[in-house]
From TrEMBL:
Gene from which the chain derives: pyrB
Name the UniProt record assigns to this protein: Aspartate carbamoyltransferase
Enzyme Commission number(s): 2.1.3.2
Aspartate/ornithine carbamoyltransferase carbamoyl-P binding domain mapped to chain residues: 17-160
UniProt pathway: Pyrimidine metabolism; UMP biosynthesis via de novo pathway; (S)-dihydroorotate from bicarbonate: step 2/3
Organism: Fodinibius sediminis
Amino acid sequence: MTDEIALDKADYDFQHKHLLGLADYTKEDILYILEQAQYFREILDRAVPKVPTLRDKTIVNLFYENSTRTRLSFELAQKRMGADVVNFSSGSSSVKKGESLKDTIRNISSMKIDMVVVRHESPGVPHFLTRCVDAAIINAGDGAHEHPTQALLDMFSMQQIYPDLEGRHIAIIGDISHSRVVRSNILGLLKLGAEVTVCGPKTMMPAFVKEMGANVSYNIEETLQWCDIAMALRIQLERQDEGTELFPSIREYHQLFGITMKHLDEYPDFTIMHPGPVNRGVEMESRVADSDRSIILDQVTNGLAVRMAILYLLSGGTRI
Ligand code: NCD
């Protein structure tokens, strides 16, 4: 069955051992991953959506921060590829980068692990792990730094509408300052030649976005009129030390930056995305999330295919 999958690493020299962030990946690396993901996306539509590609691999999912779809998506991707999977979740926010993490990792590495998928509230933890263990490390989100697999699945989803993202107008709207999704998306999208505009309250607009090469707007109407795709981001109250002080109220935020049904009527061309979880009635009206302009659930399915492709490429295994 897997012979039908024309995966051939020989046609591109994919050099990476880890996926720590898209800062380290070239345009060619990204396009190659997205191309491989297409094969896995087709597998997901089969009656038996499984391949034995990782059957000799052991993977640990190390989640120090809450996660629903990213953790499930990784686990499902690993199981669909026949890997042995061990899950470690820590609901405790007191586990910080340092000795306790190092100890956990040392214990894990003595179990002969091939790959570690890690999510942690501290930026740089995935990089730190590369120095502690010999396994391939995949960053599933490190603080407000990067979330590369999310950005890859976002780009894959965009490509299903616009196969060539060169010159496309992508808007990212919401809590820019606390978002790791925005950083990875700006890095990836600019490498693929898209134009990126970030839009949100001034108090949530960090200087780094302009330095990275994105445009900045504080006007949602202007942004929605301009864009081909509007990706809304969750207001990350858990990452705001100042509570809700960055904007007067959730209601005012929604009035100024929420996507509404009226916007869909006024600007008929843009597609809606969101990495999830959606705060309905905040980033967008509930009906907007469920409308036929939204590809939010497609993003989740595509996430599985993209993560399968990444696991395959980083596993160093041979095609079966
Ligand atoms: C994002 C994350 O965790 O950074 N969600 C996700 O991975 N699906 C965005 C968010 O939490 O709002």
